[in-house]
Amino acid sequence: MSFNIRSIEAAVTEARSKGKERGIKFEQSFDVAVNFRKKEMDVSKPENRLNQELVLPNALYPPPKVCAFGDGEFAEKATSAGAEQVVGKDDIPRLGEEKKERKSLAKSFDFFIAAVDAMPLIGRYLGQALGSRGKMPKPFPPQADLDAIINQYHRTVRVRMRNTPTFHVKVGHEKMSDREIADNIAAVLSMVHSKGFSARISDVLVKTTMGPMVPVTY
Questions:
Q1: Distance, CA of 213 to CA of 19 (rounded, Å)
Q2: How confident is the model at residue 2 (pLDDT cuts 50, 70, 90)?
Q3: Which of 153, 172, 200 corresponds to the end of one domain?
Q4: Domain count, the chain
Q5: Domain ends where: 153, 173, 206?
Q6: 48, 56, 66, 88: least buried by Cβ within 10 Å?
Q7: What one-character-per-residue DSSP string does 90-118 give?
Q8: How many CA atoms lie within 13 A of 183 on its CB side?
């Protein structure tokens, strides 16, 4: 499905301008909210809830944080590729026994990857903390191209609906151009369309971190 990218870009421009009008001095991100009509989107039914990762056309700033589980060559490659933290297999049981540490780990990182041989330990000791947040890591073999994998995660958002027919995701940063942010929003809408939910949308809104909501015409 094609979208009117100029209209989406115009909404981003307006959101940027209105954010600045409030005199906010720190750097702001851009979020998009997609709201669905309640009568047409019964989220008590699993088939009406979105819960997936989406790769955006343009990298986010700052990029999502990635944590890797593994040892040896896998750990070295993950560090080189830009993983913010690498957890060795021997540390997984200890993290699992420390409630505050495992909760902090789950909240501090956006995505997790793991060496194949680390997955049994992760499932046993960290499965509850990560699984409840939809953050269970994907397993990769030692020969996997972690540079490409982590680069992709730096362009990835998690689209997740919970108890209400709406979701919001980060789609940009004020350092990005309006067109880059608009392209990311279009990718989100394309995903919604691919799931057959686009006809149920009530409205789409974009905003900066502290700015007001701006309607998106697409």
A1: 10
A2: confident
A3: 153
A4: 2
A5: 153
A6: 88
A7: GGHHHHHH-HHHHHHHHHH-SEEEEEGGG
A8: 12
Query: Which residue type sits at 61?
Result: Y
pLDDT tier at 145, thresholds 50, 70, 90: very high
With vertex at residue 204, the alpha carbon angle to CA 201 and CA 206, rounded to the nearest 5 degrees, is 165
| Exposure on the CB side of residue 23, measured as CA atoms within 13 A | 0
My answer on whether 160 and 144 are in the same domain is no
The answer to whether 171 and 180 have CB atoms below 8 angstroms apart is no
Nearest alpha carbon to residue 59 among 160, 139, 146, 170: 170
Q: Of the candidates 191, 205, 176, 206, which has an alpha carbon nearest to the alpha carbon of residue 56? A: 191
92 and 13 in a single domain? The answer is: no
Q: Say if pTM beats, i.e. exceeds, 0.70.
A: yes
**Residue 66 pLDDT level (bands cut at 50, 70, 90):** very high
Q: Which two tokens stand for residue 15?
A: 């959101």
Alpha carbons 189 and 184: distance in angstroms, whole number: 9
